[in-house]
Amino acid sequence: VLFYIVVVLILALLFVLGVVFTDRAREVPATGKAGLASARSAPLKIEATGQQWLWRYDYPNEAFSYYKLVVPVDTTVELDLVSTDVIHTWDVPELTGKRDAVPGKTNHVVFRADEEGVYEGQSATFSGQAYAAMRTEVEVVSPQAYERFVERQKSDIQAAQDRVVGLIEEGEIP
């Protein structure tokens, strides 16, 4: 009888430990404003706009990119998630939990990548016929490579705008 009591107590203890550790395993790292508490410095703020069926990333220097978000390593990043049309879910599981971009509302995702590399994300909310193709990629690079990327993006965007204005002025575009 004593043997059975000990076995039941051990099983009960294992059950309790299993529940505690299983619940902790499902915890998602803090995101949004709560995640800023763990930031070592002011976050890099980038606006992520979901639109059928791609993501646009607007950087602080007025540069932007589609599909691929480039961020510096060891930097806290705060994404302001917005949508132009329907609900989209930003989901890059290796960096943070899922968050929705909802028309007329701004949600926040806070993350920090401690290693350089490429992190894949995909659509997690049905948003229309091509939602499965709505993917994103986060490329984490050195701070110097990040600065070169956003400066090159801004320069390329300005050059394209200048070409269009030139064509309009020359009458080649009505």
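[next item in queue]
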Amino acid sequence: MSPVKFLSVILTIVLLIAGGIVHQVSTAAGFPGEVLPAAEIVSGWVMEEGIRHFNRDNLFDHINGEAEIYLPYGFEDLASARYADTKNARSGIVADVYRMGSRLDAFGIYSNYRRADDAERIDAGNEGFVSASQLLFYQDRYFVRLSASGDMNPDRNSFVAFAHAVSRNLPASGNPPGELSFLRVGGVKEGSERYIARSLLGYSFLRSGVTAD
């Protein structure tokens, strides 16, 4: 067994002995649409067509190929809106705010997309990263995904400005999920931590757990 799998199995055993993972849900969390105001969220960018709302029944209409990834993480609802650059019609940003089951679930979805080697970390929410075509972060039990829309990607500063504007409307970020404390051991690669909500290491009897390289 490789060192990575061995560490993951040991962590899973510890979690099971402790009674499993306990999901701490924020009581201050509001509906995702409340953080996407119809007015200019960032100077020079305007919302088009209003906010679209999705739940567990119709999430497939928005992210058909990925919806099944979100459901095990306690997905509740999603608010989505497209913003257009008033100075460049070829550039747009789609802002998606997902409300997940808990802070750990929000981290779990975020960690599915993060890449430890090539992600440029940014100061947004509990943790975030930006690339040429998207910016992702999680905060409290919310997962925020900002994606380029159009044939020209927005500049990095626009992505970051959007992230900070949305973050200000979310509950205070607080600390990372307490379950990640199991990974605070020597040799763990920073940014490789993940929370798997179903079939840890590919085994159905390992329901959920945290892993790292």
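[queue empty]
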